[in-house]
Amino acid sequence: MTRLGVLGSGKGSNFVAIAEAIDRGELQAEIAIVLSDVADAGILSKAKARGLPAEHVPPGKFRTKMEPEAEEALVSRLRAAKVDWVVLAGFMRMLKTPLLEAFEGRIVNIHPSLLPAFPGLEAWRQALEYGVQYTGCTVHFVTPEMDAGPIVAQAVVPVQAGDTAEALHERIQQEEHRLYPRALQALAAGSLTLRGRGVLRT
User: For residue 78, which phi and psi values (nearest 5 degrees)?
Assistant: First the structure.
C-alpha cells in the first residue's frame, strides 16, 4: 500500500478530500503522517481526529521557507514514517535541498490556477484581476522553482459573470478536492512517473 506523508499549513480541506477518497476506496493509499509548520493548523486537528500521526515542526525564523535544520526534521519524520510520496496540501513554504533531494521526484503539490499561468499567492485573485474566462487547478511535481514543476493533471473552472475572488476560490477548491485524489491514485498505481522535466504516462 502506497504511504503518503501530507504537509499543510492551513485548515486541511485537501487533506480531508484525500482521506475521504481513501475511505471510499477511490485512492489506494494510506496516510502515514501529517506534518505542519503551524502549531495550531486545522490540518493537525483534523488528522488527530482521524487517529493519524500528526506533528508540528517549528519552521524557524524565515517566513517563506524552513530553516535547514527544520527541513531536516521534516525529512527525518517522513523517512521514519516510511512514506512513498510527499503530498503538499496548502503548505505555504518553499521547499529546499534537504527535502527535494531526500524525496526527489516524489513530492507533489496542488495549485489554484492552470499553471504556468498565475503562480504564487492568491492565484484565483490574480486570474480574476487579469480578466481570464477560465482558470482552474493544477497538480504538479515540486521542484526548486515556485509552482514550476512538471504538470501531472489539471482541471478547468470557468470564471462567471460577477464572480468575487472568494466565490471563484471556493469553486476552484471544490475542483481541487476531486482532482487531487485522482492524480494521487495515478501516481500510486504507477501510471504516471517523473522523467527528467516531464511526466511519463505508462
Answer: -65, -40
State the Cα–Cα distance between residues 70 and 72, nearest whole angstrom: 5
Task: Determine if the pTM surpasses 0.90.
Answer: yes
User: Would you state the pLDDT for residue 190?
Assistant: 83
Please report which residue ranges of the chain form alpha helices under DSSP H: 13-23, 42-49, 68-80, 97-102, 123-130, 165-188
Topology of domain 2-194 in CATH is Rossmann fold (3.40.50)
Residues that are catalytic: 111
Q: What's the sign of the alpha-carbon dihedral 12, 48, 1, 35?
A: positive
Q: 107-111 and 134-141: which strand pairing?
A: antiparallel
Chain-centre distance of CA 128, in angstroms? Answer: 22
Domain boundaries, the chain: 2-194
pLDDT tens digit string along 30-76? Answer: 999 999 999 999 999 999 999 999 999 999 998 899 999 999 999 99
Taking the alpha carbons at both ends of the chain, their separation in whole angstroms is 19
Rounded CA-CA distance 5/114 in Å is 25
Q: For all residues of the chain together, what is the average pLDDT?
A: 95
Cβ-contact 157, 137 below 8 angstroms: yes
